Amino acid sequence: MRKGVARRLEKGQLPEPVKTYVLTTGIIFGLLTAAHIWRILGEDLSLARNPFFVSVTAVAAGLCLWAVAVFVRAAQPSRNQPKTTSPQ
């Protein structure tokens, strides 16, 4: 990851298109993981013994979790910035 992007992520300031991209890819990888698990349970447990199928499922699950973590971290307000209050 480039330093500029990492720095913005630490500050919680990712651009809106990047947040949308991360959320979209997280959803896609989550759906792929769910479909694989559904297929294992619905069709045949022998798929769980196929190393390629299991590795693709594990990688998709990992990428989904990573995308969720990045999205949540980017959505949190920065800890270093003072909180602004509205004038009364």
Detailed description of the structure:
The protein is mainly alpha-helical and 88 residues long. The protein is built from three helices and no strands. The chain has helices at 3-11, 16-42, 51-75. Helix 2 (16-42) packs antiparallel against helix 3 (51-75). The N and C termini lie far apart (42 Å).
Strand content: under 5%
Largest sheet: none
Mean pLDDT score, rounded?
82
Written as H for each helix and E for each strand, in order along the chain, the element string is HHH
Please identify the structural class as seen in this structure: mainly alpha
Give unreliable regions as ranges: none
Distance between the termini: 42 Å
Number of β-strand runs: 0
If you compute it from the alpha carbons, what radius of gyration comes out, rounded to the nearest whole angstrom? 18 Å
Number of continuous helical runs = 3
Gross geometry = elongated
Helical residue percent band: 55-70%
Supply the key terms.
single chain; mainly alpha
Please outline what is shown here:
The protein is mainly alpha-helical and 88 residues long. Helices cover 69% and strands 0% of the residues.
